[in-house]
Amino acid sequence: MEVKDLKPVVLWQFFDRITQIPRPSKKEGKMTDFLLDFAKQYGLEAKKDVAGNVLIRKPASKGKENLKTVILQSHVDMVCEKNADVNFNFETDPIQTYIDNGWVKAKGTTLGGDDGIGVAVALAVLASKDLEHGQLECLFTTDEETGLTGAYALSHDFLTGGDILINLDSEEWGEFCIGCAGGKNTQGTFRYTKTNPPDGYFWFEVQVSGLNGGHSGSDINAGLGNAVKILTRYLWTLSQECPLLLASIDGGNLHNAIAREARATAGVPDAFREKVSILLNVLQSNLSAELAKTDGNVRLSVQSAEKPAYCIDAATGGNLLNALYAMPHGVMGMSREIAGLVETSTNLASVKMTENETVTVTTSQRSSVESLKTDIGNHVQAVFMQAGAEVCATEGYPGWKPNPDSAILKLSQSLFEKLFGAKPKVIAIHAGLECGLFFEKNPKLDMISCGPTILGAHSPDERLEIETVEKWWQFLLELLKAVG
Question: Which of 58, 192, 290, 381 sees the fewest Cβ atoms within 10 Å?
């Protein structure tokens, strides 16, 4: 069976079509064109703003004209991650999907279920002629994954109707999300001088692989290994045993993903050659024990390398390693109000060699408390400053304060129990959602976020549970029919 043959067919056919459309963050033009063509095909009113956000309206079904207008919202971009051994171009190649024991997966890449399944649901609702609902506005935003810039750019009058918004970007079936964290990014830039590599040095490449990776919000408390932190742990420890020169370093990719892979080329005097392997074996043993439950396949490997064309000057290389080793990563505090909710965290996301003899280190901070988001950002900034780096921080995005008395929440809870004979969980999450920005623009919005089960989001292990998609579809149709 292919994905397009799953039930409900109308939904899965749209999802299959979406997987064929390249849609990296900030390069969603093909996807927005598809949405506008879709609206034209189905005779629906549509518009696009300067940020590429698309709004498609559908009139109420017969007899439902007096129901409140509902906004269904999803984002069109996807996280583009692949395994190192996979040859794939996210700007041109279609996602290769397959079905595996009740899950939809992709071959060696992210699936784009986040939030392609939300887009598919909205399109299925818009395309279906036999559904009961009030007036609908389906909002498709751009660039959610790398800064929420589509939601940021949304004008106050782009949405014209409704005080109810259903965000289709949650990843656990049976949960209704009513709040999220705010976030920001902090970058440090190190400027180095190219130096000639000395004679009498043993040059080697060290690599960290085999980690699962994950979402820097929802997975930050899962005890996952961070490849950049592990690489730095090795290099910094080695540098305390002998002189070490750094020639190159690279690890991680996206600000909202926990780094899965990292590598560096470095050199030590020939007399310390054995130290390279000895320390690696010790750290590998320690990591295998430390990460046995969460990243049991972690691998630290080393091989000899050719003498590089140049090195990072010793002072800057040392400062960089000191900053990376001292940089906080993980949970900084738990919520005092909602049991089990991470309140504040920071993610050491990536380290990259950049143009003009610079190395850029990217971090991201999250918190459901605005002052603590600022505080952990300042903490990261202080580490960078102590190491002599230039610091740049984004303004960030606001959180979404939970409202347990929400009318759409109470209706959703009642319908869920009626349909499935169980009570749903009501949660707030540590990940960022565009709802915070929507609420900032319109504090009257009554919102919930819900979705099917997606595991491994933002990694090539991303998978979408088929059974929960059908249940979610059933629930949403009843919800649209019941909104007063």
Answer: 290
Q: Are residue 207 and residue 263 in the same domain, yes or no?
A: yes
CATH number of the domain that 249 lies in?
3.30.70.360
Domain that holds residue 10: 3-181+399-482
369 and 443 fall within a common domain: no
Q: Does the CA dihedral 63-69-75-76 come out positive or negative? A: positive
Of 81, 137, 143, 144, which is the active-site residue?
144
Same domain? 147 vs 52: yes
* Structure token pair of residue 73: 């919202």
Task: Please report the pLDDT score of residue 363 as a whole number.
Answer: 98
What are the pLDDT digits (tens) for 20-35? 999 999 999 999 999 9
349: its two tokens: 């996301």
Q: Are residues 149 and 8 in the same domain?
A: yes
Torsion from C-alpha of 439, 441, 444, 450, nearest 10 degrees? -30
Is residue 313 part of the annotated active site? The answer reads: no
Q: Give dist(CA 48, CA 42) in Å, integer.
A: 17
Whether the Cβ atoms of residue 159 and residue 55 lie closer than 8 Å to each other: yes
Check whether residue 146 and residue 267 sit in a common domain.
Answer: no
Last residue of a domain, one of 342, 358, 393: 393
Number of domains observed in the structure of the chain: 2
**Other C-beta atoms within 10 Å of 398: how many?**
18
User: CA-CA distance, 120 to 144, in Å (whole number)?
Assistant: 17
Q: What is the pLDDT of residues 155-166, one digit of tens each?
A: 988 988 778 999
Domain boundary among 393, 409, 444: 393
Residue 274 annotated to the active site: no
How far apart, in whole angstroms, are the C-alpha atoms of residue 384 and residue 366? Answer: 18
Q: What is the pLDDT of residues 231-248, one digit of tens each?
A: 999 999 999 999 999 999
Tokens of 113: 């279920």
Please, what is the average pLDDT of the chain?
95
Pair 23, 76: CB distance under 8 Å: yes
Give the pLDDT of residue 42.
98
DSSP character at residue 4: G
28, 77, 137, 169: which one is catalytic?
Answer: 77
In this prediction the pTM is: 0.71
**Is residue 194 domain-shared with residue 136, that is, in the same domain?**
no
Return d(Cα 336, Cα 343) in angstroms, integer.
8
Domain containing 16 — which CATH number? 3.40.630.10
Cα Rg for the chain, rounded, in angstroms? Answer: 24
Q: How many residues does the chain have?
A: 484
For 139, the 3-state DSSP assignment is: strand
Q: How far apart are CA 73 and CA 141, in angstroms?
A: 8
Same domain, 267 and 362: yes
Q: What is the pLDDT of residue 123?
A: 98
